[in-house]
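ENTRY TYPE: paired fold submission
RECORD: A
CONTENT: sequence, then structure tokens
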Amino acid sequence: MIRYLICAVIIGCIGWISLLGCSGEEDASIEDERLEMPFEAEIPKDLHGCAIIEKPVDFADNALSTANAKFGFKLLTELYNKQPGTNIFISPLSVSIALTMTYNGAVGETQRAMAKTLKIEGMELQAVNQANAELREITKSTDPQIELAIANSIWLRDTFDETNPDFLDRNERFFGAEIASLDFDNPQTLDTINQWVNTNTQGKIKQILGEIKKHEVMFLINAIYFKGGWKGKFDPSKTQPGIFHLLNGSEKQLPMMSHICNYSVLWAEGFRAVGLPYGEGRVSMYIFLPEVSSNLDEFLEDLNAENWENWLSRFRNEPDLKLTMPRFRLEYQVLLNDTLKALGMEIAFIPGIANLSGIAPLLYIEKVIHKTFLEVNEEGTEAAAVTLVGPPPASGPELFAVNRPFFFTIHDNWTNTILFMGTVVEPM
């Protein structure tokens, strides 16, 4: 009998949008003494005038962050090319984690194909696992204005006793995966798995599975939950109806938030960008807005890890920037099978050809599901990086109006990890 494995990838993102202010205290309960930094006048400040909290540990291997960025940009552009002119919202980190958990059981050509897709060629499995473990630990937030939680789980059919113990052990040790063996024929099991999803996304994603098929023997699930308050919150009384220009030339009226603040910006050929920090500034939302003379398609053609690093290094402080942007909400779900096949790991989906014998004999991936949620409002959101090129205005606040389709990321500045990214062509 040919069995198959479902790798269900889920992420819950709650972004509260608000662009101003800086507050927060460190969590004194953290045992690591390096986090015990008193707030004194000598504390260094970032571009936004907010206290910089030192990293609790050095992220030992930036190779994983670079790999995740390369994979994420490829994933997003492939999805956009399949459905151009649409809203897309993904967590490349979530997809990468779930696939890397599966990668721990890949062998031979399947392993090589998955490594190429995930951009981790040349990294030993132990190094990949250790870097993921460090990343999971360092992303734990001590900022009272930021909640960031990563959870993993593996669900096994109770009659399936061929799973390699080493595979389960590695996922438990390095990914903190919860492992459960359940009766997949019992209707209650579906509720149990979906409840895990609901709990680990704080109720923002209530269901990932609609049914469990007779031959399904295993599910690997990753959940990421983020909630961040802006350093500087938008004043709701200043939110007014405004015009957002759609790709087809039509206009849509939306509630547009507005605030004047000290932001980091980037002006470059073909686009401008702005960075919106959350809480104490560890996480930021970066918004990249193509110029009127350009468009989102042209911007995405230049979106890659090398340009991303270059853009981030060129952001600079812009005092008294007037930022206007829409308040919006996104829900997104996609079956990633065809996209991942196009990115090079088709072999992992082929029955009888896929080699996941490091998990158990005769397994292959049947489907990879990705589901996301995002809400951006006056209270908070993720930080956006903006590339600023050119001198500031001679007088009065410079206007940055997010009133047409744009690309954005939510970025962990400590580990240089992109938590979420997306395209917004029609805010809802």
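RECORD: B
CONTENT: sequence, then structure tokens
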Amino acid sequence: MKILFLAAWIFSFIQISILSQCKIEVIVISSLPSNQKVFITGNKPELGNWNPDKIPLNKMNDSTWSKIFEFRTGEVVEFKFTAGSWDEEALDEAGKVSGNIALKVSKDSVLVFCIDKWGNSHLNFEGQITGNVRYHKNFPGRSVLSRDIIVWLPSGYDELSDKYYPVLYMQDGQNVFDPSTSSFGIDWQIDEVADSLIKTKSIKDIIIVGIYNTPFRGVEYNNTTLGSAYINFIIEELKPFIDRVYNTLPDRQNTAIGGSSSGGLISFIMAWEHSDVFSMAACLSPAFKIKKIDYVAPVKFYLGAHKDIMLYIDNGGIGLEEQLQPGIEEMLSALKEKGFVQGKDILYFKDSSAEHNESAWAKRVYRFLEFMFPIKK
């Protein structure tokens, strides 16, 4: 009897596993040279984890490529197409790099994409940075990889040698100012937004420091040993350098940190655990609790005094944003229990129509800049 029960259980488990899988056939129709390959790249191992030349589609004829994938029901899949590199990705009808294609898997499907243009439209925007920037290439770290640093200075900085400025440190620095260095050809446009807000006297004059990421981004931007080393790198090595070279206001009240996704997580951790250094954090689409990541628990179990920090938290509602939502809601609840008040020391905003990408974050930049650097009247 036990053997029969076990056999029945195994059979049911296999049936459920099979039923939970959906077949997704991707078809690309395009005019390309006869020897050209078409690749798919996305947020799953089966899609190459955003490697632009790892997963080729199968060539059916001179104008058609296809491939069948299997994903679990309920998974959110994001992907793009390339002809072998980010310099040859699929463009929209206007010849621009488009956002990720997002699909919530629900049933067997056939997806057909007609692509007329391939290239790298963002190369045409090289140098399109508003304001004065300075680069510090291969800035060394004792316990982390060297990385580039880009520093954005407000208008009039060089003429006003006796003026000192608050500083905002931003994760994924290659993505925040310049579309030519951004991972997907679209930047946060924080330079244009900050310049406009400063000129209209909506925010204080500020310095913005962009910290490039490395191949270890996922581990550095997390509550890990390497994450602690990355935090120490910023606090003990990068910040002292910035304060020494530039006219900064180095105290905690004038020092902020920000980022998106995992960058939003590590920014929160920095402000929460090092409020003696950072008094503000901007956490856009933060990965507070998802899969093996959970930084909600440390906040829930914190029994110390109220943290004297200001937190900006936001998120969208499409694709990966849906998966991040429960963790964000748990964090907001935990912060409320710790005495944080909406509109006072925390500002939360949700854009239900927004995806998880630079284009979406660019539209929300003004919100955290105005919240963290207002001009008191």
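NOTES ON RECORD B: Residues 306 and 338 are 7 Å apart (CA to CA). Residues 124-372 form a domain with the Rossmann fold fold (CATH 3.40.50.1820).
STATUS: closed
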